[in-house]
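[step 3/7] inverse_fold.run input=structure_tokens len=189
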């Protein structure tokens, strides 16, 4: 069923993009193209999630958004081992995940150091033991995120939203940053 759906959606997307269909309403055409693109991305990343090694999102898989490097997102969806191995092999790459919808995603142990997460939605994400050293998290939404043992040393937390985000005494923050003032809550084991 999944292959049939993917095939159908791919054909529909090709027909719309080639102009072989004649929609009567431009808003309808845009809405259909967006729906198809999101569904195709969901199906494509869903296969990786089923392996059990990739990040999981209780609300569905994250869909690429405008400006996001979809290659980097696809690599992220391969799971922590594949991602961290790729980061080790490509130490100079700054993963571009700006405006990524990673709401509720389990990113435990991922190396996201120096990643560009500007404006990313990380609401409810689990980032236990995640390396975020030097990451750009400006304007990112980390409401209800789990930052226990996360390393945010030298991260850019300009205008970051941390309402009800959890952290512990092992969480490393940028020098001078006050997580409580930003809305985060200290959890005691």
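[step 3/7] decode complete -> sequence:
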């Amino acid at each position: 069923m999944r292959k049939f759906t993917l095939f159908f959606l791919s054909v529909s997307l090709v027909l719309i993009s080639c102009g072989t269909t004649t929609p009567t309403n431009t808003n309808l055409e845009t809405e259909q193209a967006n729906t198809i693109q999101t569904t195709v991305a969901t199906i494509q990343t869903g296969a990786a999630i089923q392996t059990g090694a990739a990040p999981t999102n209780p609300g569905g898989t994250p869909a690429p958004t405008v400006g996001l490097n979809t290659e980097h997102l696809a690599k992220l969806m391969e799971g922590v081992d594949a991602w961290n191995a790729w980061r080790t092999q490509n130490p100079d790459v700054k993963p571009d995940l700006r405006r990524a919808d990673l709401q509720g995603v389990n990113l435990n142990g991922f190396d996201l150091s120096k990643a560009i997460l500007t404006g990313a939605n990380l609401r409810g994400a689990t980032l236990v033991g995640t390396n975020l050293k030097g990451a750009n998290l400006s304007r990112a939404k980390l409401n209800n995120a789990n930052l226990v043992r996360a390393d945010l040393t030298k991260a850019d937390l300009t205008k970051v939203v941390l309402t009800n985000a959890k952290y512990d005494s092992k969480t490393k923050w940028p020098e001078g940053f006050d997580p409580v003032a930003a809305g985060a809550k200290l959890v005691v084991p």
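[step 4/7] annotate
Residues 56-189 form a domain with the Pectate Lyase C-like fold (CATH 2.160.20.80).
Confidence is low (pLDDT under 50) at residues 1-54, 56-66.
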